[in-house]
Design the sequence.
């Protein structure tokens, strides 16, 4: 989004944590340290007060528009002088491939799959999220522990066990949940891949032999569980059924608030 000349000139950068003050373009948003904390036990040896960047999470079902929105947020943030990095599910160098392989074999118990994903998360926390925040980056997470917890909860995994497991996670500066109707999700997934994903349709739960029916039932359960987690963890819902630009405008307003908020 290009700002009018007048507003470009009116904001004077003081300290960005990314660029030296004198090199910063006039419309860079100023980053002050924000209070950080872990949900529980955290990561040994990491002091949250050293983490000067921002952690912004976009949650939402498959096809809810996360990739689309994150790509635009990155363009916008980088154009205003912020360094960004990204994390997401199944993106760790450590076990990304093994996790895929294990899922294809479909022989792991729910608990083992859960721990596999937790390992994938822990690796990215250690190697991308924490170093990025320490260096003053805006770290954008394409889903976080909430989707992982919701998937596990609908498969009967104990909540206190999950809460303890993800006590290692850092509390994000903001979590935006893109909520999209199951009908729109199906339409968008087809537009993207011409198919539904076995796991994103909850086919392992035996809800229905029909993948469409299973997808809708499974996504309803996930949305309901995310709703409960939302009340517990306090994240913001964004109506993702609207056009891309409208969703982006709301996200940018939310991110801007976080960047200015200190
Ligand atoms: N707000 C929107 N309205 C209509 N279609 C959208 C919207 N956001 C994304 N899409 C389309 O839906 C599909 C899935 O979007 P994507 O960003 O890949 O979702 P995700 O990363 O959440 O799975 C893509 O084809 C994308 O162009
Ligand atoms: Mg995506």
Sequence:
């Amino acid at each position: 989004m290009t700002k009018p000349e007048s507003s470009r000139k009116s904001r004077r950068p003081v300290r960005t944590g990314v660029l030296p003050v004198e090199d910063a373009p006039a419309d860079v948003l100023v980053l002050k340290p924000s209070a950080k904390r872990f949900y529980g036990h955290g990561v040994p040896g990491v002091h949250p007060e050293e983490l000067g960047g921002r952690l912004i999470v976009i949650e939402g079902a498959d096809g809810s528009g996360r990739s689309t929105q994150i790509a635009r947020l990155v363009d916008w943030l980088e154009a205003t002088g912020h360094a960004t990095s990204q994390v997401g599910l199944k993106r760790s160098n450590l076990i990304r491939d093994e996790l895929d392989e294990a899922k294809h074999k479909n022989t792991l118990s729910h608990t083992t799959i859960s721990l596999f994903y937790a390992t994938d998360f822990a690796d990215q926390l250690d190697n991308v999220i924490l170093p990025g925040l320490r260096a003053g980056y805006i770290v954008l997470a394409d889903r976080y522990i909430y989707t992982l917890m919701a998937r596990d909860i609908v498969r009967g995994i104990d909540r206190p066990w999950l809460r303890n497991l993800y006590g290692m996670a850092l509390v994000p500066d903001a979590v935006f949940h893109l909520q999209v109707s199951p009908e729109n999700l199906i339409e968008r997934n087809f537009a993207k891949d011409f198919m539904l994903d076995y796991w994103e349709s909850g086919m392992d739960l035996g809800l229905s032999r029909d993948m469409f029916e299973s997808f809708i039932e499974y996504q309803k359960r996930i949305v309901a569980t995310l709703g409960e987690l939302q009340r517990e963890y306090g994240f913001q819902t964004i109506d993702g059924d609207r056009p891309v630009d409208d969703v982006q405008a709301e996200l940018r307003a939310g991110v801007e608030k976080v960047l200015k908020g200190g």
